[in-house]
Amino acid sequence: MGKLILCSGKRTDRPYVFPATGHRIFSIEELCYYIYNNIYSIDETLFTDSLTDWIKTELDLALRAEKLEMSLKQGADYKTLLTIVLCSSDYYTEQEIKKLLITVDEIRAMPSVKRWFMKANSFLMRGQYAEAAAQYDRLLISEEAVDLDPKDYGDVLHNLAIASLHIYEPERALELFSHAYERNHKDETLRQYLYTLWLVKGKEEFEEKAAEYQLDEEFREEIMLLMEQLSRDAGMCKEMNEINKLRDMMGLGKDEEIKSKCKQIIDGWISEIRSVKHQ
Q: Hey, which of 27, 121, 123, 256 would disulfide with 7, CB 3.0 to 4.6 Å?
């Protein structure tokens, strides 16, 4: 889960797999951690019969599982279900649990479009880029999208562009950053657009857009210095040997191997070319 979790309860060899994310947990502490750190992307549907059965049979927490099962049958509210699980271990303090329940109230008070946006952002922050992109795309074509003001709409486009870069769609990301900046007018969106423009279309296109946007000299120099340094680094990096080999392989019927190696190299470069920031 990206963090060392001290388990005082039983740790099973048979993990529970969350259907929505494919994430696996092995203990009650990991379940609590998952809930606490994914509160913007989960809801009542988390509490299924299969989860209750897993808590009972795999973690030997029969009483806790029965309490959860009974609460579900009685139609208990979401916060009650959360509390039952979070109080199953000492991983979080009483104050931390109360703080989370306040956050739940704040989430429930948000407009549905804002909750949707934050859910998509939670996928982005966890590095689940395909899932994040799918959520942003569905949001943009939903009826709720009409409730987004221009700035918020631009922020959705910005984050969708970030996700698109990570799933090897730089041309789409370039277009999204452009539309995002037209709406939110944020410096960070403009910066990411210009980085991506240089990446996709080269320095000359960047120079043209820099003139069109009338960038101040300091902002322009900041971008140029970074991109030129990255270009120099790329020329000296070990991947250049791989690229030269790929050139030699062209036309030899090794398309799948070429595609796989290109993907690995591009993935590394995309991470270097811009610092990923979401709105």
A: 27
Does the pLDDT at position 9 exceed 90?
no
CA-to-CA separations, 83 to 35, 58, 64, 90, 141, in angstroms, rounded: 11, 20, 11, 12, 35
Give the CA radius of gyration of the chain. 23
Domain coordinates in residue numbering, the chain:
11-109, 112-273
> For residues 179 and 243, which has the higher predicted lDDT (pLDDT)?
179
Tokens at 30, concatenated = 């990991």
Tokens of 53: 């059965």
* Nearest partner of 223 among 187, 277, 262, 173, judged by Cα: 187
Mean pLDDT of 259-277: 62
Domain 112-273: which topology? 1.25.40
One DSSP character per residue, 123-161 reads HHHTT-HHHHHHHHHHHHTSGGGGG--HHHHHHHHHHHH
Q: Mind spelling out the 3-state secondary structure of 39-62?
A: CCCCCHHHCCHHHHHHHHHCCCCH
Confidence band, pLDDT 50/70/90 cuts, at residue 229: confident
| Closest to 156 measured CA to CA, from 171, 168, 145 | 145
Whether residue 235 has pLDDT greater than 70: no
Q: Is the pTM of this model over 0.85?
A: no
Distance of CA 168 to the CA centre of its chain: 15
Partnered with residue 24 across adjacent β-strands are 17
Using DSSP, state whether 8 is helix, strand or coil: coil
